[in-house]
Every structure is written in structure tokens, then in C-alpha cells.
Specification:
This protein is an alpha+beta fold. It has ten helices and 15 strands. The protein has helices at about 30-45, 65-70, 75-85, 130-150, 155-165, 175-190, 190-205, 230-235, 245-270, 345-355, and strands at about 5-15, 55-60, 95, 120-130, 165-175, 210, 220, 225-230, 275, 285, 290-295, 305-310, 315-325, 330-340, 365.
Length: about 375
């Protein structure tokens, strides 16, 4: 079999945790991983007998789905690469990789504690099969795991005893099953647009994909990144009403930034960079936890630039505006910035203060401020 091309068929063992029982650790050591692999091999052989003609590879690590569903599927790619290096016949045709001195054999196989609190943990598996077997085996896995994918009693019992917790369910899923499950989860919480972009990044990364969020923000996937419409541009495109006091526009903008923060957190977890969509009338950039757009250059004949922080109840600072006031105190926006993570606010303030020759401590703050046209702006006079 080693002389033949081996195709990798990704599978996952899903552990549904009992409520209030988080896993006490995220990896199994080498001996534990090898022991678990024998139980898994027996389960899969009972479900799909042709697996005995493939090589089973198991990573003794428990992940969240956001860690597995990243462009290029790095966890499975690493597992496949390690498995291909092991000569056939090592531990029969089952290979398992566990931790040694607290570390997995490769960094992509290290689960992050950041995502350890979810209700389901996923242990990645891979079946390496020759081309002549791979298609048949793949079809059988898709059919059998959906209908009969519960792990065997010995496997479930071993996991509960080894981890010291109770599990509600333990079952095998194909990677396609995991993709479908994630799709349903995101659609259930009004994040269907996120799934459209993520699916493109995972399965057709060479193609562009566009989507509109539930609140109406335009997003696009292209060249490995997600590009978001600027909240200030989105606001300009919203219709205004006669005698509108802009209260509804302020509320809508706060909602858009809240939604953008949700998308930013999940895209970061899936390792998809988020950027502002380029535009001819502004330059855009992104940093750690923030997005920034520059609208105009400093006018040396006007007052020095100042910073204004737009705040919304429950969200804190939703945007920062760099303004320059001219005749009559009229404010001209030079830049808008959007902190997407709480820890990004102070670095962003310092960046703007240094760039525009002011100090972060001198910023004014207040509710979201719009100009008479309903665009994001700042008060006409300096607030103290």
C-alpha cells in the first residue's frame, strides 16, 4: 500500500459533554491515544468493514469545531502528514499520536484552552486509503456514520473513565457531517452569512463569495480574507426620514457594530482575517482587534485634530472619530476606527493620538454623533 497514492478521508469522534462537566484536560498521552485507537478501529470496522484495508490515524486531542474548521484544515493536514511518515505495520495499521511531557508532536495538534468551554469536544481521525478503495470507503462512511455512528460501549466507557466525566453521547461523524452541523448552528443564531463565507474559505478558497448579514452589512470573501463594508459607509446608504432626529440611525449603527464584533470574533476563531472593504474615497487598514478607515488628510490651516469616542449602551465605545474643526466649529471627519475587542481600545487610541498629534487622554466621548445628513461625525464644538 505504501507504493500507492493514499487519499485521506477525515473523520471525527464527537464527545457531547454532560451539562456542567467540562473536560479536565484536552490531550491524551501516547499510551492513552494508542489504547483509544484500538477501540476506535474496532468501532469503525463494525460500521464499515472495508476500513481494515485503510490506515487509521488518530490524534489524542480534543478540539472545538472552530479549531478544526479552518482554511486548509490544518489539524487534519498535520495528522495525515504524520501518519504517512510511519511505516506500514507499526501497531498493525493503526497509528496514534498523543502528548509527551504535556505537548503534542506538532503545534497544529495542540488544542487551545480558549475554546475549551463548549458543550462538545472533537477528536480528529483520518483514514488513509488507496485510490481504488477511497471512493467506496468515503461513500460508505457518509451513509453509515449518519445512521449508525454511535461509538461502541467500550469506547464510550473508556473515555468516561479516562477523563473522569460523564458523556451524553459519543459518535462518529464525517467531516461533511461536521460541516453540516456547523451550518445549522450558525443559521440558527442568524449568522447564515458567516457560514456562506466560511464554507467558501474551506471548500472553494479560489472562489469569491458575497453575503449580507441579518442587519444588512455587506461582506465578501476573496483571496483568503473577509472584507466588510465600513459601518460609516453602511450608515450613509441608509435612507433618512424628514424631521428625523437620527435616534433610529444611532440605534441601527450600534447594532451593526455589535454584529460586526460577533463576526470578527468567529472569523478570528476560524482563522479568517477580517478587513474593511477597499474604497476609492478612503484608505483602510486593520490591526489586532480593530478596523480603521482614513477619509481625509489633515488641513494645516484648521484647528489641530481631536478624538471623539462614540458610545452606545451595553457596547461601550463603538467607534472613534478623528475630527478637525474649521470655521464656525464645523467638524470634518478625518478617520473612523472601530474597536472590535475590548483590549484593542487603548492601543487604538494611542495609535490615533500619535498619528494625529494629540493625546489619548484628551479624547472627548458621548453618544453616537451624526452630522445633519445622518453621517458619522462629532460634535460641532469641542467637549470638555
Amino acid at each position: 500500500m505504501e507504493a500507492q497514492t493514499l487519499l485521506a478521508l477525515p473523520v471525527v469522534l464527537a464527545l457531547e459533554l454532560a451539562e456542567g462537566q467540562p473536560v479536565p484536560r484536552l490531550t491524551f498521552n501516547r499510551d492513552e491515544a494508542a489504547e483509544l485507537a484500538q477501540f476506535v478501529a474496532a468501532d469503525l470496522h463494525a460500521l464499515v468493514p472495508p476500513v481494515n484495508r485503510a490506515r487509521l490515524a488518530l490524534a489524542g486531542a480534543l478540539f472545538d469545531q472552530v479549531e478544526l474548521l479552518r482554511p486548509g484544515f490544518p489539524v487534519w493536514a498535520t495528522l495525515d502528514e504524520l501518519a504517512r511518515r510511519v511505516p506500514r505495520g507499526h501497531i498493525e495499521n493503526v497509528v496514534a499520536f498523543g502528548s509527551h511531557d504535556g505537548h503534542m508532536p506538532a503545534q497544529p495538534l495542540e488544542p487551545s484552552p480558549t475554546f475549551a468551554d463548549g458543550p462538545m469536544r472533537l477528536l480528529p481521525l483520518s483514514l488513509l486509503a488507496p485510490e481504488t478503495l477511497a471512493e467506496e470507503l468515503s461513500e460508505q462512511l457518509e451513509v453509515q456514520l449518519v445512521g449508525r455512528g454511535e461509538a461502541g460501549m467500550l469506547t464510550a466507557d473508556w473515555l468516561m473513565r479516562t477523563l473522569g466525566i460523564r458523556l451524553e453521547h459519543v459518535r462518529y461523524l464525517s467531516r461533511n457531517d461536521l460541516l453540516a452541523l456547523t451550518c445549522v448552528q450558525y443559521e440558527h443564531v442568524n449568522l447564515a452569512a458567516l457560514w456562506s463565507l466560511l464554507e467558501a474559505a474551506l471548500l472553494t478558497p479560489y472562489r469569491e463569495e458575497s453575503a449580507i448579514t441579518a442587519r444588512g452589512l455587506a461582506l465578501q470573501y476573496a483571496e483568503g480574507k473577509v472584507f466588510a463594508q465600513s459601518p460609516s459607509q453602511w450608515l450613509i446608504e441608509q435612507p433618512t426620514k424628514d424631521n428625523d432626529d437620527h435616534a433610529a440611525r444611532r440605534h441601527a449603527l450600534a447594532g451593526i457594530v455589535f454584529e460586526l464584533r460577533q463576526y470578527a470574533a468567529l472569523l478570528d476563531a476560524h482563522r479568517l482575517p477580517l478587513r474593511l472593504r477597499p474604497s476609492a474615497d478612503r484608505t483602510v487598514e486593520a490591526g489586532a482587534g480593530y478596523l480603521l478607515e482614513t477619509l481625509a488628510a489633515v488641513d494645516d490651516t484648521s484647528e489641530p485634530p481631536t478624538l471623539f469616542a462614540h458610545e452606545a449602551p451595553g457596547l461601550g465605545v463603538v467607534a472613534l472619530t478623528v475630527v478637525q474643526r474649521g470655521e464656525g466649529g464645523r467638524a470634518r471627519a478625518l478617520a473612523h476606527a472601530y474597536p472590535l475587542q475590548p483590549q484593542a481600545l487603548n492601543p487604538l487610541l494611542n495609535l490615533l493620538a500619535e498619528r494625529y498629534g494629540t493625546t489619548a487622554e484628551q479624547r472627548a466621548h458621548g453618544p453616537i454623533t451624526l452630522d445633519p445628513r445622518g453621517a458619522l461625525s462629532a460634535p460641532a464644538t469641542t467637549l470638555h
